[in-house]
Amino acid sequence: MEFHPLLQALILGLVEGFTEFLPVSSTGHLILAKRALGLQGEGIDAFLVVIQLGALLAAILYYRRILWDTAVGFVRGDAAARRLTLALVLGALPALALGYLFGKKIKAALFGPGPVAKALIIGGVVMVLVEAWQRRRIPKAEALADITPRQALLVGVAQAAALLPGTSRSMASIVGGMLAGLTTPLAADFAFLLAVPTLGAATLYDLLKSWRVILADTGALSLAIGMVVSFVSGWLVIAAFLRYLRRVGLSAFGYYRVAIGAVVLFLT
């Protein structure tokens, strides 16, 4: 069945928004959705990256008070604001550097259902094991201002694993934060704040580099629909996921990843 291009943009925007902040891999789900819709080409691949700007704006809206207070505090010389700024810079650097150096090679080699399915399964198992381990530990940091440069860098190194399609930037960052000694909710907050420099740099780079081919392959209206839908759905998901995380934890998402990864492997 062939869908209208605007409906395709709406579907892809929903997939992006609903999965960007859940630890299930938005890139992996978008690759699977692209395959299911029968889409291909350089413009479509760039479109899938650029609509992340919508989800990025959702994170900025949700954390607007923290971001504003941090920016103002940094200018005024506030120690806590400068610690958080340094933590965000250190957390973003590994993924940005490795993405710039190896992003094209990774896309060429691993953007397909098979690698995505395997990464989903492996990440799901890791999430379940790390959460079980975390319950037996006393966290070393319970507030954003408590995150040390070492912890931030550890989260950044973990986040870089999300360059592999199907891994999930959210999952890698949250698990990295938990392993570094952050509480699970704090690890999620820090992971979502890291989306601002990480997603911001990656998507703006792709937009500046590929806007002509995106518009040629998908059109301005489709791009606008994808971004708006990803913004709205992403904003709804952040709050719901954080509430769920505080009450229940990560394990259910780990089991989901294993299940959907196994289905994809069976079908491919």
What's the SSE blueprint?
Blueprint: H1 5-20, H2 26-37, H3 42-50, H4 52-62, H5 64-76, H6 79-110, H7 113-134, H8 149-160, H9 169-179, H10 184-217, H11 220-247, H12 251-267
Number of strands: 0
Q: Helix amount, in percent?
A: over 70%
Average of the residue pLDDT scores: 90
Shape: globular
Q: SSE string, helix = H, strand = E?
A: HHHHHHHHHHHH
Number of helices: 12
**CA distance, first residue to last residue:** 19 Å
Structural category is mainly alpha
Rg from C-alpha positions?
Answer: 18 Å
> Low-confidence segments, ≥5 residues, pLDDT <50?
none
Beta-strand residue percentage: under 5%
**Sheet having the most strands:** none
Give descriptors for this structure:
268 residues, 81% helix, mainly alpha
Verbal overview:
There is one protein chain. The protein is built from twelve helices and no strands. It has helices at residues 5-20, 26-37, 42-50, 52-62, 64-76, 79-110, 113-134, 149-160, 169-179, 184-217, 220-247, 251-267.
Quick structural overview:
The chain has helices at residues 5-20, 26-37, 42-50, 52-62, 64-76, 79-110, 113-134, 149-160, 169-179, 184-217, 220-247, 251-267. With 268 residues, the chain is mostly helical.
